[in-house]
């Protein structure tokens, strides 16, 4: 929460890792402490192992005094109607590390840097009917994980609405709005086999950027608008498919740049207000069919 304190208080709760053994439990607590201490927070591990520990008055007091509660090593948690806020300039409101099969529903997640941050090994998580706002960076940042889903949600970032970084693979975003105020609505880098469908994507610069190694992405039934440059920009990303979608950019609707090979656009509209509907530069074996440019 926005408390006015220079150092926000973070409570690390590694309860979900306790069934894996005391060593694992202590390791998750230590990793959480190290991570948030490096960000400048005041950190306290709350070592709740079971229901009796959860009912301990000292544990309850520590959680009540925290600005952010971090469930370290968590699995199979469900959060509904959650309001989470972390005003720290480099903070994330929802942070998951090695945390699988969690669900967040009907929630509002606001962070000074990222709204939601799915870090290494956080797989098969689902966020739906929620708002994610990252004031300085991204509404959603995801890295080195697999098979996460976002649906019927609003993602806003000061720079990027949604950011799928290296190794964020096999994830799906549907029925959602992604807005990147400064740069991109959706940005991917070396993220493979992700899907976007029935979504609205707006970027202050480009709507969608598929950067180096972002291969086998599928975008369908979506609207992509780049305010100052491109509807979709693909550089060195291969075998991506866009279908039944609308792409509009101030200069180019779609731009397949160097090394963008084996991509397919079908049944779509590409409009470049000032220059080209579609521009291909040093890209090979791309296909466009049944489309308007």
- Gyration radius (Cα, Å) is 20 Å
DSSP helix count? 3
Q: Order the strands across the largest sheet as they lie in space.
A: 4-7-10-14-18-21-24-27-30-33
Name the structural class: mainly beta
Strand content: 35-45%
What form results from the Cα inertia axes? Answer: elongated
- Number of beta strands: 33
Task: Name the helicity range.
Answer: under 10%
The span between the termini is 48 Å
Low-confidence spans: pLDDT under 50, at least 5 residues? none
- Give a short account of the largest sheet: 10 strands, parallel
Average of pLDDT: 90
Which characteristics define this entry?
elongated; mainly beta; 3 helices; 293 residues; 44% strand; nine-stranded parallel β-sheet; ten-stranded parallel β-sheet
Describe the structure.
This protein is mainly β and 293 residues long. Strand 1 (9-13), helix 1 and strand 2 (42-45) form a beta-alpha-beta unit. It is built from 3 helices and 33 strands. It starts with 8 loop residues before the first strand and ends with a strand. The chain is elongated. The strands form 5 sheets. It has a 10-stranded parallel sheet, with no helix packed on it. Strands 5-8-11-15-19-22-25-28-31 form a 9-stranded parallel sheet, with no helix packed on it. Strands 6-9-12-16-20-23-26-29-32 form a 9-stranded parallel sheet, with no helix packed on it. It has helices at residues 22-38, 51-54, 57-64; strands spanning 9-13, 42-45, 68-71, 78-80, 83-86, 92-96, 103-105, 108-111, 114-118, 126-128, 131-134, 138-142, 145-146, 149-151, 154-157, 160-164, 168-169, 172-174, 177-180, 184-189, 195-197, 200-203, 206-211, 218-220, 223-226, 230-234, 241-243, 246-249, 252-256, 264-266, 269-272, 276-280, 287-289. The longest helix is centred in the N-terminal third of the chain and has 17 residues, at 22-38.
């Amino acid at each position: 929460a926005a408390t006015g304190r220079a150092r926000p208080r973070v409570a690390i709760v590694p309860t979900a890792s306790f069934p894996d053994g005391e060593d694992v439990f202590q390791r998750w607590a230590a990793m959480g402490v190290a991570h948030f201490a490096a960000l400048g927070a005041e950190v306290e591990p709350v070592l709740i192992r079971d229901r009796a520990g959860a009912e301990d008055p000292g544990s309850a007091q520590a959680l009540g005094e925290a600005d952010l509660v971090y469930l370290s090593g968590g699995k199979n948690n469900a959060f509904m109607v959650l309001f989470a806020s972390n005003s720290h300039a480099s903070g994330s409101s929802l942070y998951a590390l090695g945390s699988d099969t969690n669900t967040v529903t009907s929630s509002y997640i606001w962070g000074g840097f990222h709204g939601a941050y799915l870090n290494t090994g956080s797989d098969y998580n689902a966020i739906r009917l929620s708002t994610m706002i990252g004031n300085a960076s991204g509404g959603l940042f995801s890295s080195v994980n697999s098979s996460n889903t976002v649906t019927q949600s609003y993602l806003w970032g000061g720079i990027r609405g949604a950011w799928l970084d290296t190794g964020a693979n096999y994830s799906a975003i549907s029925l959602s709005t992604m807005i990147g105020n400064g740069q991109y609505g959706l940005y991917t880098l070396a993220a493979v086999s992700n899907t976007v469908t029935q979504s609205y994507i707006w970027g202050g610069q480009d709507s969608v950027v598929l950067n180096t190694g972002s291969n086998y992405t599928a975008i369908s039934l979506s609207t992509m608008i780049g305010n100052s440059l491109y509807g979709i920009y693909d550089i060195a990303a291969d075998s991506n498919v866009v279908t039944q979608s609308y792409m509009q950019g101030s200069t180019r609707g779609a731009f397949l740049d160097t090394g963008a090979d084996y991509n397919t656009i079908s049944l779509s509209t590409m409009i470049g207000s000032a220059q080209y509907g579609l521009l291909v530069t040093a890209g090979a074996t791309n296909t466009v069919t049944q489309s308007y440019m």
